[in-house]
Specification:
CATH class of the domain at 149-297: Alpha Beta
Distance between the termini: 60 Å
CATH superfamily of the domain at 149-297: Histidine kinase-like ATPase, C-terminal domain
Strand content: 5-15%
Helix content: 55-70%
Order of helices and strands: HHHEHEEHEEHEEH
Number of strands: 7
Structural class: alpha+beta
Largest sheet: 5 strands, mixed
CATH architecture of the domain at 149-297: 2-Layer Sandwich
Number of helices: 7
Radius of gyration: 29 Å
CATH topology of the domain at 149-297: Heat Shock Protein 90
């Protein structure tokens, strides 16, 4: 009996082990399928959720994923509607504000009042502020198209500095480092223009503004540094807020929106922007994810 029972027991154990291995392989295959499905949804958020009607171990998990996808699609649809409403409002607001300003400018020029230069200067300042504010709100509403492609950031930064130099002929504008990134070159250039102009406006007439590019393993950093003495520590967290003016900005007539525009452009590139005081002045650091290695793998 014992001689027969042992082989029988071994056979039962072998069959049980085989069934367990088969179930394990099946579960791994199903988990891989779910993982691929989630990856496809992340790549195309418009993909429709799929309900699992089979009674298997992963059905509750798969249906929970489908429910989550449905909620995300609903939220995305609401955001699209709200974004369109915001963009329409911005277009209407732009028209309603620009028309009376243009008329006011015309009447001032026709009247030739004693304070005409001052009046025109204030109108121009208001026009710049309105344009900057509308630009910011358009970015925040998703109303600006981004053309993402591999860019040489050194070339983008050099063109920005070449355009700014005539405005500040005595400034020392320095560009260091090399970096390549998949981004919208025009929008990234716009962010750098705002940052470098802000630095130039808060340094001495012959001050120095340095832009340093660093190409890392998984990210690219851009640091704009000036020698203007920095800002009070309590102002640092608020520098990128709309219309916020730090103590060092009190003597300058900016729109108070340029740094906010830079922040929105960086955010739309999935990056971060921070500011802190360095040894000689303010340092603004942009960190942008570099997806080139991930794209090569896919």
């Amino acid at each position: 009996m014992g001689g027969v029972a042992l082989p029988l027991l071994a056979g039962v154990l072998a069959i049980g082990l085989g069934v367990c291995l088969w179930r394990l392989v099946r579960l791994r295959r199903e988990a891989g399928r779910l993982s691929d499905r989630v990856e496809r949804f992340l790549a195309d958020a418009r993909a429709q959720p799929q309900i699992n009607l089979r009674e298997d171990a992963l059905a509750p998990l798969e249906n929970s994923i489908a429910a989550l996808q449905s909620r995300l699609l609903h939220m995305q649809s609401r955001m699209d509607v709200q974004g369109k409403q915001s963009r329409d409002m911005i277009v209407e607001l732009s028209h309603q504000l620009k028309t009376p300003l243009a008329s006011l400018r015309l009447y001032c020029e026709m009247d030739q009042a004693a304070h005409l230069p001052e009046q025109l200067a204030q109108i121009e300042r208001m026009e710049r502020m309105i344009a900057a504010l509308l630009r910011l709100e358009k970015l925040r509403a998703g109303g600006v198209a981004f053309a993402m492609q591999p860019c040489d950031l050194h070339v983008v930064a050099r063109e920005v500095m070449d355009g700014i130099r005539p405005l500040y002929p005595r400034k020392h504008l320095l560009l260091e480092g090399e970096a390549t990134l998949r981004c919208d070159a025009a929008r990234m250039g716009e962010a750098l223009v705002n940052l470098i102009k802000n630095a130039c406006e808060h340094t001495a007439p012959d001050g120095t503004v340095r832009l340093r590019l660093t190409d890392g393993e998984a990210s690219v950093t851009l640091m704009v540094e000036d020698d203007g003495g920095g800002v009070p520590a309590e102002d640092l967290p608020r520098l990128f807020e709309r219309f916020f003016r730090s103590a060092r900005s009190s003597m300058h007539e900016g729109t108070g929106v340029g740094l906010s525009i830079a922040r929105e452009i960086v955010r739309l590139h999935h990056g971060t922007i921070t500011a802190h005081n360095g040894p000689h002045g303010l340092r603004v650091l942009i960190t942008l994810p570099d997806l080139r290695h991930s794209l090569k793998k896919t």
